Amino acid sequence: MLVIAFLVNPGYYSGIQAFIKPPVPTPFPTVTPALLNPDMTPIVLAVQTFSPTGTTAPEVTERIPDAAPDRIYYTSDPFSYPRYRLPENMGIFGASETLYSAEEMVPFAFIEERRGGLTRQFTIPYPVWVLNISVTAERTPQYGNFRMVLAYAENGTIIDGGEILNRGTSYRMIQTSNTPLYMIISVANIDLYRINLETSRSYYDQYRPR
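and the corresponding structure tokens:
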């Protein structure tokens, strides 16, 4: 089982600020932020604090950079899942949803394939997240068809789904977290599809695994 370990936004982090020089000749010592992980380079932010001279000067803090999105692959044993077929009527899921959030959306996982199948199981830590689906069909776009559902791994109960005819994009907003999931995907006459799993910056920073 694939567990996505990271893991909508009141605002972005402020830009990097330069140190403020004190009004006395004695310079401040250079502050070097410690790495939380030797493989990560910290993003330096400035936070106001008091200097020994009584004037304010920035104190260096650090934020862990965003992790690269995890790739979700198909399982090699689809018939062991509680549900492995799509429902006959895909119209029950309605049209694509529209994202109104002005927040930055952060991708934390993705699926990219040319064929259909059942994904490996995965778990999402974010309380609200989005399936951002894009389908490409250049050779025979008039025949392109993409269908998918998201289901609980425990019993196969469908959470949501969608269908794209010909080619195009679709968004599905999901409010399920911390439980194993999987997708059933069927394609016909398409060149490629990609599903980005995204959440808002505020949720990403709050709920990503540390």
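(Above: one complete record from the training split.) Helices lie at 201-207.
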